[in-house]
Amino acid sequence: MSRVFSGIQPTGSTHLGNYLGAVRNWVDMQDSYDTIYCVVDLHALTVQQDPAELRASTLRVAQVLLAAGIDPDRATLFVQSHVHEHPELSWMLECNAAFGDLRRMTQFKDKSDQAESGSSGFVSAGLFTYPALMAADILLYDTDAVPVGDDQRQHLEFTRDVAERFNNRYGDTFVVPEAFIPPAGARIMDLQHPTNKMSKSADTDSGTILLLDDMKKIEKKIKRAVTDTDGEVRFDVAEKPGVSNLLSILGAVTDQDPTELASGFEQYGPLKAATAEAIIERIRPIQERFREFEADPAETERLLAIGAEKAQQKAAEVLARAKNNLGLLP
Ligand code: ATP
Ligand code: LTN
Q1: In this structure, which residue's CA is closest to atom 15 in ligand 2?
Q2: Partners of 249 in beta bridges
Q3: Which partner from 16, 104, 168, 268 sits 20 to 30 angstroms from 157, CA to CA?
């Protein structure tokens, strides 16, 4: 069976973009693939975190994934720092990654600009080498496919390049993975700034629908979503980014084509109402299940420990292969 791996950072709160671009595909893929999903807490350390908050949000993100339908009986769900093979392989990959390739990563450019203009002005070296750790996450499991949002395309190309270079230099070691970027929902935009992607690290959360937002808040955020003044409901991302984003969201949630959906609306008001309703219908059961997991953190920790053990068995095997091929003494 083909292997699928993906990861999500435990920073901020999981949002509708994460869900539509990634998590719901993770859930669907459990039926036909051998799936491994990881809460990438070591990646979160690339920017300074409050330790208590990091601990809490790592558990919370795992609970959101379980509530969204990740089933620990079918998928392996674990926390990155529980499997020490990840940072170990990351170093070996860094030594086979080109400095120039890392420098060209747009996420690094964006995040380092953000960090530089932030209150501390501090850009960590980890932010720069971040893609090597992501490559290690993926390559440690002989992964065939990586379901991610559109923003991760470049990191996946980087992962493939490093794997191929390593294989050329040291002999067949890694499976070269493919990105799986969904046809709908791969790039959900901020409701207030519809030319920016919906993000956890936006200045305010008024443009971001959080999976744990209450229903009233979701309605309000959609009602206040930025549109435009021409009044026509039409799917046209370049000319009408706000309206098109609402159509993309409604289309992704209800499995319909955004262009076709547009013809069913004459005004922005009903489009917003339908979008809010569809989101709420999708999110409500996730929130209900989340409350159950939230009430029993020990159970989540137990599931994550089982996941880490399963993941480590595979990771240890691939790391040993890499070390041997590199010439590291057994
Ligand atoms: P940030 O929002 O701070 O940039 P992030 O949400 O991109 O962080 P993760 O939480 O690790 O970082 O992302 C988890 C998954 O969600 C990734 O596969 C990513 O591509 C996807 N994703 C993130 N934002 C969006 C979005 N706006 N639309 C679609 N998919 C997204
Ligand atoms: N870089 C990703 C998160 C991530 C990931 C991974 C995704 C870390 N390791 C492995 C897929 C596979 C992000 O910022 N969204």
Answers
A1: 8
A2: none
A3: 16
pLDDT higher than 80, residue 203: no
Domain count, the chain: 2
Task: Tell me the ligand closest to 80's alpha carbon.
Answer: 2
Q: Which protein residue's CA is at the shortest distance from atom 7 of ligand 2?
A: 7
Domain assignment of residue 63, given as a range: 3-185+297-326
Domain co-membership, 107 together with 244: no
Does any ligand 2 atom lie closer than 6 A to the CB of residue 146? yes
Q: How far apart, in whole angstroms, are the C-alpha atoms of residue 107 and residue 176?
A: 22
Query: For 164-189, what is the mean pLDDT?
Result: 97
**CA pair distance 157, 222, nearest whole angstrom:** 34
pLDDT tens digits for range 235-277: 999 999 999 999 999 999 999 999 999 999 999 999 999 999 9
In this prediction, residue 12 has a pLDDT band, given cuts at 50, 70 and 90, of confident
Ligand 2 atom showing the smallest separation from residue 130 Cα? 1
Of the listed 109, 197, 216, 310, which one is catalytic? 197
CA of 9 to the centre of ligand 2 (A): 7
Q: Please tell me the total number of residues recorded for the chain in this structure.
A: 330
Check whether residue 7 and residue 105 sit in a common domain. yes
Tell me, yes or no, whether 16 lies in a domain: yes
State whether 302 and 265 are in the same domain.
no
Query: Is 165 in the same domain as 281?
Result: no
Predicted confidence (pLDDT) per residue in 20-54, tens digit: 999 999 999 999 999 999 999 999 999 999 999 99
